[in-house]
Every structure is written in C-alpha cells, then in structure tokens.
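INSTRUCTION: Work out how this chain folds

Fields: amino acid sequence; protein backbone structure tokens

Chain under study, with its fold:
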Amino acid sequence: MSSRRMTTIAGSLVTAAFSTVMIFSVTASADDGPASSKGGKAVDEAPAGVELTTTLPETISVDNSSQKTDLTATVKNDGSKDSGKIRLLVVGFDGMTVTNVQGCSPMEEKDLPEGSNSGFVCPVDNLAAGKSKSYVVDATFDVKKTGKICLPVQTGDGKKTFWQQGPVPFGTTNPSPNAPATPLLLGTDNKPVAPGGDELPKTGVERDLLPLGAAGASLMAAGVAGLWWSQRRPRRTTC
C-alpha cells in the first residue's frame, strides 16, 4: 500500500475519532433535558402586559463522589410589554445547596428565606416582551437527603414577588448509591438510601406502624404547613 494511501486512511481515522469525542462531550451535559415551570405560581399581580415565569430542567445528574451538579434557571417574559427592573432569586433547601450562579451575588445569611441554606440574587433589570434570560447554577446535592430549589421573580427592590417556582424538589424514587451519578427528576421527592445500604432510612415513628388516623392527621398537618409556606410573603425575601 502506498504511503499516500496510508496517510489518507490515518487521517480519516483521526477525524472519525475526533468526531466521536465531540459527540460524547456534547451529550454528556447534565442539563440537556427539556425545561419546565413545574411547581410555579403567580403571587403578586404583575403590571399590565407583563407575564413573568421561570423554568428549570426536568432532569439533572448528581456526581455521587463529589455531590456536584449543575442546571440552568431561566426567567421569561411572555407578555406584550417590558417588565421593568426585576430580579431573580435562586434559593436552595435541605440537601440542595446553591454554590454559585453566574453573574449573580450571594445572599447574606440574614436575608435568606426561612429554612433555606443558600441563595443568590440575580439583577435582571428590564426584560423585554417575549425575551428570556438564563443563568448557569452550580450546586451540591446530598443524595442521602431530600433537596429543593426555589426561583422567585421580584421587583428590583424585592417588595413584590410576581412569580415563584418552588420550593420544588429534585429527586428519585429509585436511588443507585453505587453508580457514578444519580439522575434526579424535577418535582419528585427524593427517596434517599441509607449510607452503605440498600434500605431506605426510617426516621421518627415507623410509617408502616402509624394508625390510619395518625397518618391522616400527619398529612393534614403537612398540608396546612404547605399552604402557610406558599402564602407567607415577607417583603425582604420569599419562598
């Protein structure tokens, strides 16, 4: 075989290998899934013609060794008029800790919503009609716990909250503690695995031993707490 043909074949193989690496690098992102506004609700009335919402990815992936994950938080104005000066908050709860949001500032501990462990403030300024703005969110997620995230959209001074997504959970009902990564679904309560085992941890009173009346009372109390949580709107922060 001639040296020219050998060179051509070798070049083709290198190109094919490079193309394969490029494909894998694109599809390996933890944030490739469709976005969703699941768990979102309007709060204070927005100005006429302004329709603000947020979205989160429907799936994320947590590295089981480092507990690191990333996602994209997006705020949108689906209305017919510009929003005026607004801001987006990105707040973590329970096993989900927000470590950085690109272009945003960390919240002081005294300004964090009750029950949260981390938060960032993203000044959006004016969001034109039909436009959106996305932020890359870095976080850690302890898969041995439940984890939630909250995205309120407020006036620039924080006195009104036009929209709030969450606190909405990420989680899985089929954990894999020995896998390299754990995929988590938006809107799913995490069912963590006890350290070093395959059984779910049991905390407090055994769920299987709860009388029907006690279980009903627990659910009713949880419902009341959830209603109080969603309705309380402190002016400094929300969630």
In short: Residues 3-27 form the longest helix (25 residues). Confidence is low (pLDDT under 50) at residues 2-30, 197-212, 214-236. DSSP finds two helices and 13 strands in the chain. The radius of gyration is 22 Å.
